[in-house]
Backbone:
């Protein structure tokens, strides 16, 4: 029976990769979530075709006992719901036992945001070696475009138009969008690209087209970018929690705080739903305070 689940799991992941065109990061997340479910089925000696509401509640309770974050539990439940929907769509099953499971209320903590000065210090800390300038490009690109770290790792040199100060990124679900480059970002790219070409000439390695390279001349990974950011955060003495995604959140928050409309920010981030944008930006609290002070009769 478990073999039946495994067969359908493999087919489902292949479907997500080919038909849905999901990114490698998304596929890894679905793979992990279904492995969690598979482990539960094995431990309880259950067949995925015969789950009832009691067994589903047992599974969700098991996730809670593992002390996972609410967001992680919600993602796992969502992944399994989607798996069962796939099984119903292709006549593998008739009923989705997870259809009535609601997401856990998420007591969301407002994420940390970097200040403009902190981002400037990080960029200034990088030296002018090839790898140092590459690091400046990473920091500038994340902040000036608001792109996802996976979008940056997949960006090709051919996708950059320095003269127009634009880049074409591949977002979730294969959706492409144009993002904009600041003058500082364009200047760093102008310094980096000749050094990148020289690196290939000197090393004799094959050109792979990727914009951002690791020290071995291959496409940099999301983990590699996280390591680089950690290095500069430690160098400038920032104690708040910072990840590559912090730059995306910072981009959105700074745009809103400086008067950009939320619909514009939504398009720039590549969000299909504006509610997602509102979560990222926590509605630009500094901007709201400024408007309140000006607009409310007693706000001064």
Residues:
């Amino acid at each position: 029976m478990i073999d039946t689940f495994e067969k359908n799991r493999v087919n489902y992941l292949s479907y997500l990769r080919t038909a849905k065109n999901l990114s490698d990061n998304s596929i890894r997340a679905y793979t992990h979530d279904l492995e969690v479910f598979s482990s539960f089925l094995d431990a309880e000696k259950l067949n995925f075709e015969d789950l009832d509401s009691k067994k589903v509640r047992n599974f969700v309770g098991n996730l809670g006992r593992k002390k996972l974050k609410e967001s992680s539990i919600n993602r796992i439940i969502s992944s399994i719901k989607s798996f069962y929907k796939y099984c119903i769509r292709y006549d593998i099953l008739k009923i989705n036992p997870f259809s009535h499971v609601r997401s856990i209320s998420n007591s969301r903590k407002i994420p940390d945001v970097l200040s403009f000065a902190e981002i400037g210090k990080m960029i200034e800390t990088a030296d002018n070696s090839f790898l140092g300038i590459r690091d400046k490009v990473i920091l500038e690109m994340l902040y000036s475009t608001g792109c996802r770290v996976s979008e940056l790792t997949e960006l090709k040199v051919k996708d950059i138009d320095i003269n127009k100060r634009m880049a074409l990124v591949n977002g979730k679900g294969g959706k492409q969008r144009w993002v904009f480059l600041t003058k500082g970002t364009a200047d760093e790219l102008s310094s980096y690209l000749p050094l990148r070409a020289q690196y290939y000439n000197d090393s004799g390695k094959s050109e792979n087209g990727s914009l951002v390279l690791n020290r071995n001349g291959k496409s940099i990974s999301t983990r590699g970018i996280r390591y680089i950011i950690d290095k500069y955060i430690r160098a400038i003495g920032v104690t708040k929690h910072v990840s590559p995604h912090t730059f995306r959140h910072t981009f959105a928050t700074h745009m809103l705080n400086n008067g950009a409309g939320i619909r514009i920010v939504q398009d720039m981030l590549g969000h299909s739903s504006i509610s997602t944008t509102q979560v990222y930006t926590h509605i630009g609290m500094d901007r709201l305070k400024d408007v309140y002070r000006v607009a409310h009769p007693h706000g001064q």
Observations:
- The chain has a mean pLDDT of 87.
